[in-house]
Amino acid sequence: MPIQQANWSPYDNNGGTCVAIAGADYCVIAADTRMSTGYNILTRDYSKIIQLADKSVMASSGFQADVRALQKVLEARHLVYQHQHNKQMSCPAMAQLLSNTLYYKRFFPYYSFNVLGGLDSEGKGCVFTYDAVGSYERVGYSSQGSGSTLIMPFLDNQLKSPSPLLLPAKDAVTPLSESEAVDLVKTCFASATERDIYTGDKLEILVLNAEGIRREYMELRKD
Amino acid sequence: MAFLWLLIWEVRSPSLHPCSYGSTLRYKGVERMKPVGKHSLIGASGELSDFQEILRYLDELMLYDNLWDNGNSLGPKEVHNYLTRVMYNRRNQFNPLWNSLVLGGVKNGQKYLGTVNMIGVHYEDNHVATGFGNHLARPILRDEWHENLSFEDGVKLLEKCMRVLLYRDRSAVNKLQATNITEEGVTISQPYALKTSWNLAAFKNPTVGAEGSW
User: Hey, what's the signal peptide range on this chain (chain B) (predicted)?
Assistant: First the structure.
């Protein structure tokens, strides 16, 4: 009898793309709102972004059930932190928590590709980028998800990030203004939508700055 | 098996009746939609025995909710969340409940429609479907659903979709139930059949354009 292969997978890829850009005093986090499976679109209006704390916003793409479970775990842990410390978690603290949470399931991972954005304790924009098992790095900008291969090289070209090997360390945050960064994000998604079938429908943009948080939407191609 | 749900000012849903057993159409009179509490309705595709177990879970959920006796009652949003957690938890144990569930309802004037499948993928929308419904019905619904759909038009739209499924899904039978959920409650219709037409010229003389075929 031939060897049987497992044909049930606990994973699925529900697609989508996330981007975040850090500025001198702001952070832009964006993701499309399309949820797909295989060649089908399940829904055109599903948010991949969640505000975990005052100054931390996470965008995640990948397997939606895992993404949602991860969001709930982080939300719950933040509540406990607030009870114990009587303050909000800082973005770098949330970054470490996310990494630890992901690695906790190193041998049955959350199939979730995350980008965490926010403001650090000095009010400067910060972006942290992750893989599915918690490996992370603070960067000036990042993208994850199905369209990341299309967007990342474009961002590299436009944002000219200094080498992390330079001494003294050069600031990774972009000198662009907030509105220029938002426009750049819109351009990224309009382009990715053209060539990535899993990206499209609508773009959700969150901007964090000293005033607070602002949400913006832009229509994308629905094909 | 296919399920279709439509969100209008109430919530409407039809489902086709059969239960297959491999390639045998084993049961043709199975009810795959059940009310849950006062405000919601659940419908399922997939493994019938797992659906029966889910109904037992929901019975227990509603029992404990009623035991509080505090005037509160679980609405469709809450029940959908509970089901999502149950499905995801079983998936984590590599022992899934092999179903695609649809949960709809109306509470305090707020209508709700959501779905969750065996690996825990879930979402809400104005119209949802399971199985073949995703391929055949949702495009029609995307084109013709709108915010101010009347109840009668909603019925017609759903029946249009179900007819397509009846023609094209080989595991479908012409026996369906439609449900209507409003603030007042849940009403499930008696099973009925759709009018179909097999009177196509191509079916009458199938070999007319193909010499030698049968």
Answer: 1-18
